[in-house]
């Protein structure tokens, strides 16, 4: 870890939520977007999503959550999830606008 009293982003971050299918409950709490990229950073997965209004959002999820939502997308195994529609909820203030 880092210096005493200093918390790294990866250990203190709140994870975001992402679904491959429209949620059945509380639909008004979810945003819809298209996956622009998927990358690994600091042992987590960063999914960059473009919101329907053109805003770019970086979602930070665990690798297990990445594997789960990608497996539920309507794509072939090994196919890139870029361009797929997802539903998401941002937690934790890692938002990037472009």
Can you give a write-up of this model?
The protein is about 15% helix and about 35% strand. Strands 1-5-2-3-4 form a 5-stranded antiparallel sheet. The protein has helices spanning about 10, 65-70, and strands at about 15-20, 30-40, 45-50, 55-60, 85-90. The longest helix is centred in the C-terminal third of the chain and has 10 residues, at about 65-70. The protein has one domain (about 15-90): Beta Barrel (OB fold (Dihydrolipoamide Acetyltransferase, E2P)), CATH 2.40.50. It is built from 2 helices and 5 strands; from the N terminus they run αββββαβ. It has about 100 residues and is α+β, with helices and mostly antiparallel strands.
List the helices and strands and how they pair.
Elements: H1 9-12, E1 17-19, E2 31-41, E3 44-51, E4 56-61, H2 63-72, E5 85-89
């Amino acid at each position: 870890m880092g210096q005493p009293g200093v918390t790294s982003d990866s250990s203190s971050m709140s994870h975001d939520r992402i679904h491959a299918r429209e949620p059945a409950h509380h639909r008004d709490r979810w945003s819809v977007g298209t996956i622009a990229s998927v990358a690994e950073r600091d042992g987590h997965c960063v999914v960059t999503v473009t919101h329907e209004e053109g805003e770019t959002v970086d979602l930070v999820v665990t690798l297990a959550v990445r594997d789960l939502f990608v497996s539920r997308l309507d794509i072939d195994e090994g196919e890139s999830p870029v361009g797929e529609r997802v539903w998401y909820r941002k937690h934790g203030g890692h938002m990037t606008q472009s």
